[in-house]
């Protein structure tokens, strides 16, 4: 990671009719880092990507990619970025090889010239190179799309929800590939709705309803979590939630996988208070444990 | 340059890889020349006729024979009960009824000089207006021919006679096929160049592939032009194959110059492709585009003089036809193919096509920027 700024976003806003998709977004992304844009569906991730990849114009604010303005220098930007949209956007009726050749050619280069850049990923799908893109599995499609986005050696890579709808193993593999791409000096801006992927990024921004609600390294964001967090387990989760939510001293209470996370002030009551209350209400099989907060907990606190 | 080449290569590849299109393109000229002209045919043959003969005389039998031997009528029944024939017509079994009233032979013998009309009636089924009116005209002609002949035989003075000799120019046998083939070519070019590229672009929009292209250095012009080129080639292929087939199968030559045909085809392609682009700009998905296209193709075809003459349309329809590119292309094509018209005759059509083309292109380009 260097100190030079790769992507700079200043006061970007964008509305679709009455819906404010982006509301005064400010971001600074350094060269050579993996920057994660994390937020639920509809938070504005794709809108920001579309502004930065010059596909749409913002209503106000400015943004630049490697010093090039997204409005004035859009043609230069298009030449130097790689973009992988959230949906599979390659030609389904062309083969793997033809798609790759096509994207290489439109960027004025060849697959051979940049083979090094894509070798790691392409070698995994090369055996299917004559197969039509539509006949590939989800994971393969994703690898092909990444190859096509990388084939012209971009300076900045934009990946819009690359792991959505991909199985757990492929997701893990994908992040390994991203780490490797980053090592070759490419700046990567990646969006994801999965909070657990936040830790794979160098820095992240949490986005909700078109606003950045927090930013920093994943550790920084977690360390800013001010409350004590308990994981409560028990048989009837719905009942437990109903009992704990209205309690004095419970700041937030939400289900978290098979358990529920309860946030309480540092100077408030402790776990025994929770256990006692549950017992008094007739819940006998519950257990309470102090846990470290994750990004999802931070997100819930801020939202 | 390499980029353009590859863009075109990609379009052609996708074009020929499509399961339906190449076969459709190859079979279209054959359909147009060998099938459609027979189907889109306004000639009326085998008018189904019932004859109500109340006279039952030698003369009435002769008239019946005259009608059945004329070749235009298919005499379904001869009866003396009028109600029977009417029932047949009500059921849609017959197209026309010829009623020969009582006293037909007598009156014919005495001559109609007395001023009484002959008791002959013609009734036609006009559910299909064209068939009805043409059938009635045939029947009229048949009866008057019979009267003329019988007057000649009986040696009666038939009064002053005006002989009308018709001469059909440009299409001497009034062959409807000859008239329709240039129009069919017009329709084919319209479909090929207006609507298929529009659907192609909308499909890229729908599938999202256009987004991936938009972040590459490929310019919009290059993207659109490369989409049009395959269809342009196909359109030219189609026009000249159709003309060749018409020559081989029917011996219909082209009276005018092939170069003029090429020129008009090109002008029409420009108009239709910019129109197609316009449709694709305003459509988000294939369904929308299909509906808009369907609507316009109905208007384009029906209000253009291709099937029915413009002169018989009300004023507003003629105004619509004036804004319809097919009107001019069809007029020019018919002129060139049938009459050997040259640019000196058809330049107005060319100017009109280019004018409409200029408007639609400007609109398409402007709206293309707006939608982004």
Topology:
The complex is a heterodimer of chains A (303) and B (372).
Chain A: E1 5-16, E2 19-30, E3 34-38, H1 45-52, E4 60-65, E5 68-69, H2 74-80, E6 81-84, H3 96-106, H4 115-125, H5 138-150, E7 156-160, H6 168-183, E8 187-192, E9 203-208, E10 211-216, H7 218-223, E11 228-233, H8 237-244, E12 250-256, E13 259-264, H9 271-280, E14 287-290, H10 295-302
Parallel strand pairs in A: 3-8, 3-9, 6-7, 7-8
Antiparallel strand pairs in A: 1-2, 1-4, 4-5, 9-10, 11-13, 11-14, 12-13
Helix pairs in contact in A: 3-5, 4-5
Chain B: H1 2-17, H2 21-39, E1 47-53, H3 58-69, E2 73-79, H4 82-90, E3 96-100, H5 104-110, E4 120-124, H6 129-153, H7 176-207, H8 209-214, H9 220-250, H10 258-282, H11 286-302, H12 315-322, H13 325-339, H14 343-370
Parallel strand pairs in B: 1-2, 1-3
Antiparallel strand pairs in B: 3-4
Helix pairs in contact in B: 1-9, 2-7, 2-9, 7-9, 7-10, 7-11, 7-13, 9-10, 10-13, 10-14, 13-14
Describe the structure in brief.
By secondary structure, chain A is α/β, with parallel strands linked by helices. Helices cover 32% and strands 29% of the residues of chain A.
Word description of this protein:
The complex is a heterodimer of chains A (303) and B (372). Chain A has 303 residues and is α/β, with parallel strands linked by helices. Chain A has 10 helices and 14 strands. Chain A has 2 domains: 5-222, 3-Layer(aba) Sandwich (Rossmann fold); 225-302, Alpha-Beta Plaits (2-Layer Sandwich). In chain A, a hairpin with a 2-residue loop joins strand 4 and strand 5 (68-69). Chain A is elongated, with a radius of gyration of 22 Å. Chain B is α/β, with parallel strands linked by helices and 372 residues long. Chain B has a 4-stranded mixed β-sheet with strand order 2-1-3-4, sandwiched between helices. Chain B starts with a helix and ends with a helix. Chains A and B meet through helix 2 and helix 3 of A and helix 1 and helix 8 of B.
């Amino acid at each position: 990671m260097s100190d030079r700024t790769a992507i700079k976003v200043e006061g970007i806003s964008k509305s679709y009719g009455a819906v404010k998709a982006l509301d005064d977004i400010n971001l600074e992304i350094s060269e050579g880092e993996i920057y994660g844009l994390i937020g639920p569906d509809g938070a504005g991730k794709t809108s920001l990507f579309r502004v930065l990849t010059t596909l749409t114009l913002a209503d106000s604010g400015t943004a630049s990619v490697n010093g090039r303005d997204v409005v004035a220098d859009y043609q230069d930007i298009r030449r130097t970025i790689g973009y992988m949209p959230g949906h599979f956007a390659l030609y389904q009726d062309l083969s793997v090889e033809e798609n790759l050749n096509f994207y290489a050619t439109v960027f004025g280069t060849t697959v051979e010239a940049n083979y090094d850049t894509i070798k790691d990923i392409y070698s995994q799908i090369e055996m299917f190179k004559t197969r039509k893109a539509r006949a590939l599995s989800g994971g393969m499609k994703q690898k092909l799309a990444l190859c096509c986005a990388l084939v012209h050696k971009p300076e900045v890579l934009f990946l819009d929800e690359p792991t959505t709808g991909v199985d757990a193993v492929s997701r893990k593999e994908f992040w390994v590939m991203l780490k490797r791409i980053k090592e070759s000096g490419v700046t990567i801006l990646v969006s994801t709705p999965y909070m657990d992927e936040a830790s794979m990024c160098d820095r992240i921004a949490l986005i909700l309803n078109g606003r950045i609600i927090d930013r920093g390294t994943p550790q920084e964001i977690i360390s800013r979590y001010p409350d004590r967090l308990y994981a409560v387990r028990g048989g009837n989760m719905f009942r437990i939630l109903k009992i704990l939510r209205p309690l004095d001293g419970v700041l937030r209470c939400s289900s978290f996988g098979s358990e529920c996370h309860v946030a309480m002030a540092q100077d408030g009551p402790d776990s025994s208070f929770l256990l006692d209350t549950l017992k008094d209400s007739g819940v006998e099989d519950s257990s309470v444990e102090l846990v470290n907060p994750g990004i999802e907990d931070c997100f819930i606190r801020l939202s | 340059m390499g980029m353009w080449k590859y863009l075109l290569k990609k379009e052609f590849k996708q074009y020929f890889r499509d399961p339906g299109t190449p076969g459709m393109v190859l079979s279209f000229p054959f359909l147009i020349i060998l099938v459609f002209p027979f189907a889109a045919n306004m000639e009326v043959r085998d008018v189904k006729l019932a004859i109500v003969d109340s006279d039952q005389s030698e003369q009435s039998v002769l008239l019946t024979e005259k009608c059945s031997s004329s070749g235009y009528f298919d005499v379904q029944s001869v009866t003396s009960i009028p109600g029977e024939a009417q029932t047949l017509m009500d059921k849609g079994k017959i197209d026309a009824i010829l009623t020969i009233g009582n006293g037909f032979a007598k009156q014919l013998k005495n001559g109609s000089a007395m001023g009484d009309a002959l008791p002959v009636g013609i009734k036609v089924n006009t559910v299909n207006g064209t068939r009805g009116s043409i059938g009635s005209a045939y029947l009229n002609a048949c009866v008057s021919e019979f009267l003329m002949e019988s007057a000649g035989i009986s040696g009666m003075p038939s009064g002053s006679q005006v002989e009308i000799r018709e001469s059909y120019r440009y299409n001497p046998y009034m062959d409807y096929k000859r008239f329709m083939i240039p129009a069919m070519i017009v329709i084919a070019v319209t479909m090929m160049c207006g609507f298929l590229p529009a659907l192609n672009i909308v499909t890229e929009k729908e599938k999202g592939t256009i987004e991936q292209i938009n972040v590459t250095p490929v310019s919009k012009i290059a993207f659109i032009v490369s989409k049009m080129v395959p269809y342009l080639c196909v359109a030219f292929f189609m026009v000249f194959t159709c003309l060749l087939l018409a020559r081989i199968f029917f011996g219909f030559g082209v009276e005018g110059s092939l170069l003029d045909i090429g020129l008009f085809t090109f002008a029409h392609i420009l108009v239709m492709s910019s129109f197609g682009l316009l449709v694709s700009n305003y459509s988000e998905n294939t369904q929308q585009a299909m509906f808009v296209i369907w609507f316009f193709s109905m208007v384009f075809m029906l209000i253009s003089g291709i099937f029915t003459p413009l002169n018989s349309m009300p004023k507003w329809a003629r105004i619509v036809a004036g804004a319809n590119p097919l009107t001019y292309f069809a007029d020019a094509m018919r002129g060139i193919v049938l009459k050997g018209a040259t640019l000196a005759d058809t330049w107005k059509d060319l100017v009109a096509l280019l004018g409409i083309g200029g408007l639609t292109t400007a609109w398409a380009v402007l709206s293309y920027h707006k939608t982004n």
